[in-house]
Amino acid sequence: MPEKTVYIETVGCQMNVLDSELVIGALKRKGYVLTDAAADADVLLFNTCSVREHAEEKVYSALGRIAPHKKRNPGTVVGVIGCMAQKDQEKIRARAPYVDMVVGTGQLGQIPALIDAVKETRQPQYALSLGRSDGGRHEVEASFESYDPVRDAAMRPTPFQAFVRIQIGCDKFCTYCVVPSTRGPEQSRHPDHLVAEVRQLVDQGCKEVTLLGQTVNSYEYALGDGRRSRLSDLLARMHDTPGLERIKFVTNYPKDMTDDLLDAVHELPKVCKYLHVPVQSGCDEVLSRMKRNYTASFYMEMLARCREMVPGVAVSSDFIVGFCGETEESFQKSMDLVAKAKFKNSFIFKYSERPGTKAMDRFPDDISEDVKKRRNNDLLMVQNANSLVDHRAWIGRTVEVLVEGPSRHGHREAGPVKQLIGRTMTDHITVFDGHDRLVGQTVTLDVTDASAFTLYGTVRTGEQVGVTCAAEPAPREEGAKRIGLALV
Ligand code: 5AD
Ligand code: SF4
User: In this structure, is residue 333 part of a structural domain?
Assistant: First the structure.
């Protein structure tokens, strides 16, 4: 029988990367072989993102590029899956009528059966969840299923790292954001299942897990009898997994950064001392229009609490510039916040108006593209100056790095000694020369140089293999003052 081949393009966040891995895993079990040549594929999948318009346009142009291939080979199955599929089934049909399959984030498990249905019936197949107001909470929740089948180590880009979805959906409804409609209501997965999933991943050779959730620190599972499992409990349970070396979690919501979680990050040696906590803006009026439910000073207090309770923690953030009604004065407040906050790094986005969001209904997108671009550059410049200071402070220190693979920019490809890349427990990207057998190992490096984005190091001789990254927690400052936390 000839091989069946599948091609996939993925845009967007780590959730999408995980979804693509799982979908391809399921198709491989059905006999499909993954190809990176779209022209050879029997099935072409586009796993999509709707967070910004640019990400959607990328998918429409990819669909345009494969149109001639589909015309020549009408038996090819073309599928649009993920966030855009959930949100825009009609638009996809209008702009690319040859698409055979539109599958939302909550129906990914049906893809193998839907492909068979397309092949048998030659009719387009749609599998989508309910909209947020198309039914009662339970009905809508049930229509979004977490897709987390048993996995195969060979499916992952690196066998020693894995994403683990601990929560789907989002209930925060920030006014600019499509995620609550594309990924549905917030639902946390059962801790027993998650602990078992991590154990299974570690049995397959995984050393580092990254727990995923849109607001991962809001994770909460009702166990019955009024008992609840929170992220701090989950971290403690996962921490006991023998062979697991590192646990990370992204993305955090500032108001849910509770003391029990920070205690867990501080006390559990395998938990990375790294927190990604998007602030989005430094201006209270903008934050209020965004419906972020906190002020800039609340955020700064939260940040101080993170640093006080987890000494040495690295914090990164996200900003949106040019949100509706952002004056020069309000933008300046983001500039002031980024200067003061001293994030390890920040991701800065130009506001992109999204149909279906509250911001689009309520506020005009009144900042010009040129102004958005300028504000983006200005904010990035301040952040980059701080990133350089942050990174250079590591020169002369010793770090433990989980080696991820050869550096993409490395030039010395021939021979076993390569420029390798890894990350520290604080998520600092580190580049160094080493034997390629170090990939997947934790190595000790002396940091010799740094740029705003990268540490450069040399391997400590005799220490490179099998070092675990578990370290004693750094001491907290004597008598450190606890800053009060307002819980949502
Ligand atoms: N426009 C620009 N950036 C956005 N983000 C979310 N929605 C939008 C939007 N409509 C950014 C936020 C979020 C990150 C993942 O994407 O900063 O934290
Ligand atoms: Fe979007 Fe806000 Fe939810 Fe993050 S917390 S996914 S920005 S709605």
Answer: no
